[in-house]
Amino acid sequence: MNLVIASNLARAGYSVTMLSNHLARFAPWLPDLEMLPFPAVGKTFGIADAYDLVISGCDSIVTSAVSDKAILAEHFLVLGTLRGDSAYFQDHRPRLEQRVGADKAYVLVRLASCTGPMRVLNDDSVSTVDQAVASCQLKLGLGDAVAGPGFMLGSSAAGVRVLTLFRKRGDGSCWRPGWGRNMVVRPVISVGALRDSWKCLLSVQRVERAFELLVRQHKSVS
Superkingdom of this entry's organism (predicted)? Predict the structure, then answer.
């Protein structure tokens, strides 16, 4: 999700640095982005002073390093995934104009006001990847936004078919892989009180049938 947004901003001409301890290892495969690991926890807040605007998720290393939501909301533009904590959401246009001047702030105005939930499509079956693309198009004004995460070489977004197992019947579709064909298999019923009971309600046969269907689809396309 975050990589989709960052890659689309880079395609639109923004200078984008993405901080990720995991994705920093793939920096050579992401030529449009500057990929860096997060600094030490004690220096995390300093990120806000290093860039014109810093976007963070509600559940990120940034929010876990600084507990005061009001301070975070003042210095970081916080995005929720599908929902989010409203205490983090603040319009950063006035602060940005004061910091970089009116001309540069004008270029970043859509980005500075995009705080809030990333979800813009009221459809639980839409993947988070598609929500990220729609958010780029509708909230950021990036009409040419695409789902591609920007990898130079093929890989977890090359259209590989994925079979995903979820423990609940009511969720899962939105968190499934969003690139290429995929299938979600859920238990026949959900028993929320018994967290691990879903394993007994999802038969090996159902998983096997779904896997075989993905294989047949792959062979027919090939």
Answer: Bacteria
